[in-house]
Protein 1
Amino acid sequence: MKRALVLGTLAVACAAAAQTPDPTAAEFDKFREIMEQDNPAELFEVKGEDLWKTPRGPKNASLEKCDLGLGPGVVKGAYAQLPRYFADIDRVMDAEARIVHCMITLQGFTQAELAKAPFSSLVRTPEPVSIVTYVAAQSRGMKFASPQNHVKERAAYETGKAIFFYRAGAFDFSCASCHGVDDKRIRTQPLPNFTKPEQAIRAVQGWPGYRMTGGVMHSLQWRLNDCYRQQRFPEPGYASETLSALLTYVTVNANGHVYRGPGIKR
Amino acid sequence: MKLASAGLLAVAAALIASCATPQRDYQPDALAMMKRDFHARGSAGMDRLNQDSVQAACNKYKDEPPQGVADKLQKEQLAAIKWPADGKLLGDWKAGEKIAQNGRGMAWNDKGGDGGSCYNCHQVGPRESSFGTVGPSLYQFAKKRGYGADIQRYAYGKIYNAKAYNLCSQMPRMGHVGALTEQQMKDLTALLMDPASPVNQ
């Protein structure tokens, strides 16, 4: 009897411990909610809209004929339905890869110049980062619905999954080393398990995001790049198919969850 | 005729096998894509995309290799550990604490190894509250296990090559890949094993 009581108490204590939210994470969530009411990301959204609509580049064209998957020029709801297959280039693309594609084909920019310094610094925000922020904002409040209809969309998911689990490099890490199990942390940073739908949303929620560390706007392209740096891998190509495949894997896992729009990150 | 029917049987067997495993293996596709899309940067060359025998086994068996495979490879990894020539495994725990705190090393902008990144995943000393939970707590490591020569050897060996003890451990092989020097690993072993170390208070 006594033993049963002790065991019962232990079970309750364990359950309570498992449910206690990380205090640092909880504090940050509160902070983020307040910050999101007046998110600096909105400045980049405005800048991105201007870049989308203004004729630019060697071909002096705007991006208003860019097809983000829902038809030329349709921006509303497009971000929540990416990555997806594009017949014109016969591959699956994520939002930023598609925007870069349009900047090349419609405006005449080159892949090399766009990939040269693709991430934000204190003195410069690359144009695709602002544009992807604008495009993402037009899916605020919509459910993620990255399609799995085309055979190449399904292949991108499976390839992305294999990339996610691939262990190599100096430290034997894969994406799953940090994001394949529940309730773990690096230092005080909680690690979502992207293999589960209810946690996979945390891979894409809040991106593109205004990052308080450094005070710059970053997209998912930057996030994945920095993951690979910490994974001790070589560097993935900007807007490459590898990153589109990885984003297909995590976004499809997150399908059905509501996107809150460009966010704030620590 | 005999040959033809044998061939037919082989095809039938392959068909049945492919039915049993409806999902094809996408790892070759994934690796080909990565080899095309990645480039070397700083200290991280393209060779890092290649799997060594341990990584290949863990990838193939999704971190749960059959006992025979694990035993064989663990034995090889253990045999490759270079133990200190002077036979001493304990360095300076104070230096060890600094190495444990340092999360740099082996990334693009790092020259080579630097820190041990221990606190990223483990609780170690009692004064640091910012520790990860990917690995088990190492607080009171020797106090719980004993201070003997065998435990010292285990601690040093585990830091040198965690895969020699648990093939698909998530822990990097700090000595095996040259992320830490012999002296650094001795200092970390002291952090875990020295009775005076805060870890054992």
Note: The interface with chain B takes residues 155, 158-159, 161-163, 165-173, 177-178, 183-189, 191, 229-230, 232-237, 240-243, 245 of chain A (CB under 8 Å).
Protein 2
Amino acid sequence: MNTLAKDVTKDVAIFINDFYPELPPALEKLSQKLGRPLKGVMLVDKTVRERGKYNADKDQVFETIVCDFSDTSMLRSTIKKLEDHILLIDTTSERGQPYFKLVLPHLAYLPAPTESSLEWATHKGQMRAIVGAYNPNLVPKVQVIQDDSEDTIKSILSNLELPCIVKPTGLAASILVNKVTSEDQLRETLRHSFSTIHDVYARDAGRWDPGMIVEEFIDGEMYSIDAYINDTGTVWCLPPIRSKTAHSLGMDGFYTYQNESYLEIDETTITAGQAAAKDAIHALGLRSCAAHIELFHTQTGWKIIELGPRPGGYRQFMYAAAYGIDHAYNELLVKIGLEPEMPTETVGYSLITNTYAEEEGVIADIEGIEEARAIESVKNLWVHAKAGDFALPSGKGGKLIVDSEMSNTSQQQLLADADKLRAIISIKLTAEKPAITD
Amino acid sequence: MEKDIILFVNAIRPTTFAAFSKFKGETGRTFKFIVLVDEKIQESIAICNGQHELPEPIEVISADFDKPESIRRVLKPLESRLFAVTSQYENCLLELQKLIPYLPYMHLPTESSLEWASEKRLMRELLQAHNPSLVPAYLEVTDISDESLDSVERLMQYPVIVKPSGLEGSLLVSLAENRKELGVALKHIFDEIQAGYNLWIKRQRPAVLVEEFMQGDMYSIDSYVAADGTCRHTPPVKVITGRQVGFDDFFGYARLIPAGLSDTEIANAYTAAEGACHALGLRSVTGHVELMHTANGWKIIELGARIGGYRHDLYLRGYGINHIVNDIRNRAGEIPEIPTKLIAHTVVMQIYAPKEGVLTATGGEAAVHKLPSLFAMRQLCKVGDTVAFAKNNGDPVFEVMLSHSSEDQLQHDITAVEKAFSFTVQAQTEVLTPA
């Protein structure tokens, strides 16, 4: 065991802003491994708390400390009270990364990412520039834009070949992501995106300043790979997860319609995908963290489209159900310099369904929820909207309405249950409204 | 692959060659030196940091530090061989900061810590948050309005020190005893600060600080801060300012070892220095800490994320400490060697002309050359140059380094130096006569 793991005075784990239910059991497991009690502390930015845009530790499983992260002195004083006891620091959410960046230099003696790597990884424009500088073959051709002026549009048309994908630089979950195949569509999409981007950034706590990128469309199959990186740059890659976008299934929008643990690609292709993920991690200089890499398998190899310095959403469930991997626990292990536990046997199959509104309008009802929850493979199902809420398609800034975590030891049964769930759940809309409301 | 390259950001100190030659003789270990300079300031930094007069040829490569593909291009062939990356000068820290995220698997400081250590306001803010007793009252001032003067007077008592937030070496530092003098000092610094930043190739935003004047004796300590925060300190250096010998200026007139402090005083100074390094989160770097020994204990004047000027020569002569090699080995994760047995009493003196103007003649060099303890003398301002005090962005005319195993001999030679030099400035001849 390394120094941190053995140092009995280090017994505090700091988590920034967002609480996730997998954190307490992961910390308890680490506590058992190290043979000493460990305490979790949520360090929450004052403004984030006031705005309420975070996952609060409502049951107060951990101690919560609130501090104004924009006040360097206050942050320093707050951390000073804890620093002799801090074992690790972790930020699980994408939106928490800018806050993590502010805390990092005050904990200089803990293994942690560099400040710039967090910014690079969570800004789609910078991520592409940095990864492209490392290996131009890893990313599609891209242009970062700040407006929809005539000059900008001319510049895009002269630099890139249509079709292109238009997406925001600092939002997750495919919000405001659109494909354009013509100049007219490009103009219309940019006009709409820039007219709503500030509202959407405010609503979804977008990272950094609002901006958009336009990148050449990649034709291929989408996957994601989660990985762990230690402080010396050693990378452990998990098996890929297949992501089926709505677009790939012939529907509108680029949101992830379904994530699946089972794969139809061979070992050589998987190894090549993991090598591309590793390259992207090293390009961004990530260390002492988990990473979530989204990539396309194309005819000309693997291309990176997103990379977050954090575990991917739903991956705790998916990797546990499919491979028996405790993702959150592994992340804590690499943060204190220990190797993650990587079982390789398949123990089952896991799948995620996401449901968005297909049209714009006010929700009258969301039907079939309880019936869907009763399906054998459905382990968790969440509803994020209610009757009376305004709904938009994902490409226009709309948010997720229903999602579910499903697993089964039978792949066939899992697929049948997923089809059944989609047939049961129905979002009924009544009328349209002109503006986004939170 | 063997880690045999030391990368110097922007510039290399000339004494580095001799320091590593000595290290090679003692250990057999050899390294290849490469200077990596930001191409946007390549020529200006070479002139400013004396890179055209290096004792040995060195490979110099360049990149645009603001373009990722440019940095990647130059680092890629070197990465696997890099033993350490270092910035030996204050005006190279910004470029080191820009390189850090491209070398995440090496021991390097955090990006913010370099910014905090380069800006006195941020430094004081963090020192105060870490331990309020470490710093005097201070305020950043943005203009010379009555409101600004009122704000200063509400927060602190006269006398106060007016200084730039981002320059080293007492440049543009002045003392104000009352409101009128404060107004004059602020006007002067606001008039000159941009020129000072330009001269020293500092690319940060110029800012001005006013802080309460501390009564006490000044010392410095260089601390090797390891990656895990462990601080290994060099012995203290006593600093005598120009003001203490009769100049209206705060330049470092003499830097002396041993510092003449008791073991307890030294231990307390180390504790203060360590607190300062930890307050800024320094790691894998040498912290140059300037401290004031006051009636209320040790206070931090400032802290730089680099070795102190002249410290290699002082420590090598005084204690046999190879400071430049230690700095680099510490950055590479190795433990520096710090012998503490005094070998020789040592001093570095900066000799300014007693007046400002055009230097038309100098005298006394021959007498200084004959002193038994002299080991180096350098003339920085030549006849025909304009000379100015440090508070006006000026350089000393001479640097003199003396070292001797006998304290009495050294004291004798210091006095001889003070008497020997004479300067003619704008047709006036004045003999340097310290108070």
Note: The longest strand of chain A covers residues 289-298.
